[in-house]
Amino acid sequence: MKKLSARRRHPLAAVVVLLLALAATGGLYAAFAPADKAQADETSQSLAIEEGKKLYAVGCASCHGTGGQGSTDGPPLAGVGAAAVDFQVGTGRMPMVAQGVQAPKKKVVYTQAQIDQLAAFVSSLGAGPSIPTKDQYSPEGADIGNGGELFRNNCAQCHNFTGQGGALTDGKYAPKLQGVSQKHLYEAMTTGPQNMPSFPDTTMPEKDKKDIIAYINAVNGDKTVNNGGLTLGGLGPVSEGLFAWIFGLGALIVVAIWVAARTAKAKKS
């Protein structure tokens, strides 16, 4: 009887075993679950790249080359990044209907899912600016005053001080900024599409980009507000400068002739 009582299990033995089992299960889950998630993300990305490659072969390869190396009809795409694809394709500028000095904005022919797949494939060709998140381009809490100053110093020369756009050289133009989504405004500043220079974070911090977006939204939000000045139909800085030269210089010439005529009469008398 003493031997049997010595072999009797401790009352807490079952609880200890259960706790050890739970700890082992949790450890195994912690060890393998992240790896499974990472593997799933990698698989999803690979599928997106593969689908994007198929879309690229049909709609883009004829101009940009089968491997994105570029051709006489289109620039190379290695290093342009996902943001450039999202902007160009997401605004309908790509694919182009016909070759020209500039790709105009038009109806979008791809769904957002397809655009994401194209962006994934182009990103696989070389690292570049990524598609911004909402936190990056949302103007909430932005400084509109600072955005206006930055816009006038960096953008108004081409886009007009209220974003009405304007003509450039050789048939090119700066497009209107009315109705452009906040994401596409941010991507344009990051990637520098068409004739526009790029403003990476090293040149223009993320906060400054948000301030500019807030300013554009403010000046284009209420159409009943007059922001000051004679807009001349909002035709842009080139036409407005031409107006100033013709009428301003013309007025000076008329005044000079009038002064000369008066001086000549005064001398005769």
TrEMBL record:
Give coiled-coil spans as residue ranges: none
Q: Where is the signal peptide?
A: 1-30
Binding residues for heme c 2: 155, 158-159
Catalyzes what?
Answer: a quinol + 2 Fe(III)-[cytochrome c](out) = a quinone + 2 Fe(II)-[cytochrome c](out) + 2 H(+)(out)
Membrane topology (UniProt): Multi-pass membrane protein
Per UniProt, what is one Pfam family of this protein? Cytochrom_C
Gene Ontology CC = plasma membrane
Detail which positions bind heme c 1. 60, 63-64
Quaternary structure? The cytochrome bc1 complex is composed of a cytochrome b (QcrB), the Rieske iron-sulfur protein (QcrA) and a diheme cytochrome c (QcrC) subunit.
Q: What is this protein called?
A: Cytochrome bc1 complex cytochrome c subunit
